[in-house]
Specification:
With 247 residues, the chain is an alpha/beta fold. Helix content is 34%, strand content 16%. Helix 1 (24-38) crosses helix 7 (181-199) and helix 3 packs across helix 4.
């Protein structure tokens, strides 16, 4: 019998701490599969963020470091410049990357640092209790926007791929989703391209992934609603696609 699928060697066999319906677990597996397929595990260094995925280093069977809030790109830059032979992946959420870490991500892209950024956009602060994030949609309720995000008070959602693609140093920026099978397949392909860019020395690459957060979206009674929310609401504000691809 032909084996079609197996647990990636780059993932430890540990119990997930993420909430039911969360997209982080899907993305973790995709990253691990790509690391295996590119045969780079022994030289990969993973930078875990502050946020729901702060313990991401527990899942990946490679060297890893937990960074201060928002400083993933700065840490990744230091590792890559001091050890150019390594493959450095900075895994970040929307609060980590687009709020406290905005300066780090913008300047890392502007310098065309040869690193890979995996950006999870679930439009809300997860670990800290569901506050409004830079990517929270207009009208979306959170613990700090109980009547919905009002652009007159809170401004507008930040579109990270569109922003970074305007910088000359960015080499690759793509937005995908994990709310359906087609999205998962495209996400894996995007992650593989972003990491392969680093292997080939092409430069700064980012994959933004629209991900479910049933807990902080108030959908714990029916987590499948979260996939519908991405389909009906998030993709209108954050359209998936390739925003920049410099060969």
């Amino acid at each position: 019998m032909k084996l079609l699928n197996e647990k990636p060697k780059s993932l430890f066999d540990v119990k997930m701490h993420y909430c039911p319906g969360c997209g982080h677990g899907i993305v973790h597996r995709l990253i691990a599969e790509v690391i295996d397929e590119l045969n780079i595990r022994e030289r990969t260094i993973f930078v875990a963020p502050v946020g729901c995925s702060v313990f991401a280093d527990m899942y990946f069977n490679c060297d890893a470091i937990q960074g201060a809030h928002g400083r993933g790109p700065a840490i990744a830059t230091g590792i890559k410049r001091s050890k150019p032979e390594t493959i450095v992946i900075s895994y970040q959420g929307d609060g980590d990357l687009a709020s406290i870490g905005m300066a780090e991500i913008v300047h890392a892209a502007a310098r065309n640092e040869n690193i890979t950024i995996i950006f999870i956009n679930n439009a809300i602060y997860g670990m800290t209790g569901g506050q409004m994030a830079p990517t929270t949609l207009i009208g979306q309720k959170s613990t700090t926007t109980v009547y919905g995000r009002d652009p007159r008070v809170n401004g507008y959602p930040i579109r990270v791929c569109e922003l970074l693609s305007s910088l000359e140093g960015t080499r690759y920026a793509e937005r995908t989703t994990v709310h359906n099978v087609a999205g998962v397949v495209k996400t894996k392909n995007a992650i593989k391209k972003a990491i392969k860019n680093q292997v080939d020395g092409i430069g700064f690459s980012i994959v933004e992934i629209l991900s479910m957060c049933p807990t902080n979206w108030g959908m714990t009674n029916n987590p499948s609603q979260a996939t519908k929310y991405i389909e009906d609401q998030m993709v209108k504000i954050f359209p998936p696609g390739v925003y920049k691809d410099v060969k």
